[in-house]
Amino acid sequence: MRIEQTTELDGKPRPEFDLTMWVDDDGQVLKSTTKSFGGLVTYRTTESAATAPIRAAEKLNMVLETVIKVTHKIDKPEESRQILYRVTLKDDKPAEVFPTDRRQTLRAEANKPSVLLEVKTAGPDQGTAGPESVGDEYLRPNAFITSEDATIRQLAAKAVGSTLDPVAARSSGRKMGRSKCQREELRDRVCTGERGGPDTFGRLHRA
Question: What is the pTM of this model?
């Protein structure tokens, strides 16, 4: 059976998070497709097939495959605190793809199919504070955040140490993420390489 899942956020459709699933009679998802990450297809399989060694020709670097390059080099991207992009999408409307929040805004250009995307650095004390605590459903491991994995937990502890400050923890994690992953098994399973800059958020042309 085929199931179409649609997504809304704050009452607004977010088609980029829509999901198409194929399930069996017991409700198990056998296959799913989404536009996220530039288009992603997942299949349900056996544990032995999922954990089998990956051949070199089949390896996929999710970072490199989903980065969309800008037409001009951004000088010192890590030191930039504000930047303006001109965004043109072939099949989608930018207003339905890029969220507007305290760190980025969209504005239309007169008589042009493109929009201007302005991105600003937002500090930890800016915006409306969130709740002091969240439900357990937001803390459980999932397909994208495998927080129960022993290797992930070990590297996370190494990155943030004993700090409980999320801002300090994020800063420590970014510093660690700039170097190549040193563990061979992690490199094949999670991510490799350098951090992504602000030029990775869409089909962008620098204004």
Answer: 0.46
